[in-house]
Amino acid sequence: MTMFKVDRLVFEPADVDLARSPLAQDLGGQTHVLGAFNPGLTRLPNGNLLIMVRVAEALTEPRRHGHIHAIRWDNGSYVLDAYHADTVDSTDPRKFTLIGERWRVMALTSLSWLLPVELDPDGLSVVAVHYDRAIAPGSSSQCYGVEDARISRVDGRYLMTTCTVSPERHATTLYSSENGLDWRCDGIVLDHQNKDMLIFEGTIEDRYWAQTRPLGDLYFAYPPGSEWRAGPSINLATSPDALHWRPHEQPGIRPHAGTVATARMGGGTPPVLTEDGWLTLWHGVEPQGVVGIYRTYWSMLAHNDPARVVRTDHAALLEARADLTAPLAGQMYVSDVVFTTGIADAGDHFVVASGEADLACRITHIPKARFGL
Known about the structure:
Elements: E1 7-11, H1 24-27, E2 31-43, E3 49-59, E4 63-64, E5 67-74, E6 77-84, E7 88-89, E8 95-98, E9 106-108, E10 110-119, E11 126-129, E12 145-154, E13 157-165, E14 170-177, E15 184-190, E16 194-199, E17 208-214, E18 235-239, E19 246-247, E20 264-267, E21 272-274, E22 277-286, E23 293-301, E24 309-312, H2 322-325, E25 338-345, E26 349-356, E27 360-367
Antiparallel strand pairs: 1-27, 2-3, 3-10, 4-5, 5-6, 7-8, 8-9, 10-11, 12-13, 13-14, 14-15, 16-17, 17-18, 18-19, 20-22, 21-22, 22-23, 23-24, 25-26, 26-27
């Protein structure tokens, strides 16, 4: 159970009208919503909150005639690609891996697009669902989908990073907006194998800062006895214009050797400035089963030196709640996953948005006192 008074699901697969999906014209009747989750979060000029929901749309019958099928955007329409069932490993319900390739090559069991959902100022009820402003693949670099929006507001302008998925690259694409609803694609800003890019909600000495998370299969060891564990970490980058990014030389938040809960880690919410520094919420993954256990943690970074952690907590801030998803038990395909993706100031507390079980959107009100503020 949670320690927070407000902690609930606010948007789930049944709330998506697939007749208004970007895929409807080409695949109408063949799909279902695998998940409506991992919402970016921001406050609109009218005071309402916006969650940018990742809608993972999957084939209702992906296996037919000895083949498994994947959805792909192709020059303005959506097509199905067939892979012989004997040539893939589908152990992970979110994807399948091609057997016998020299490199690890996979395809997804769903294609994701982004749905803007407007909530009331507390984030607890839906005001409007803006299907006319949905963000779907629009280039070959996005042919397998647009995923996991993170929204920052910097000097009155909204900046949204998304994960772009295709055989060409696994990259970060930037969108910008003046009002939080009408978005312009500014193109790829981080190239292959870089996820969870979070732009700080403010500049430092007139430069933009961001957290990044490069991926890879090779990491060099820390020396014996080090407090750090080799593996994915949260790095830093700076930019003069939010378009051209340079890696920061000092490391950011690294996996701690004293716990397996951060054996894999990555950014969660865009860092927000407080009186004590930049507050950032991030995820740590403990190995278990195919997917692992995802939890949310937090750190406070120094105002003028985000590479320096002022304070943090090894205890999880948020964990998955089976009681929240119990009414959706028949739709669940993973468990023990909370993936926090958005934060907004609400006076004496923060409104925090998360994806719960890769299935639904969760809103939690967390008192600022929980972070020592």
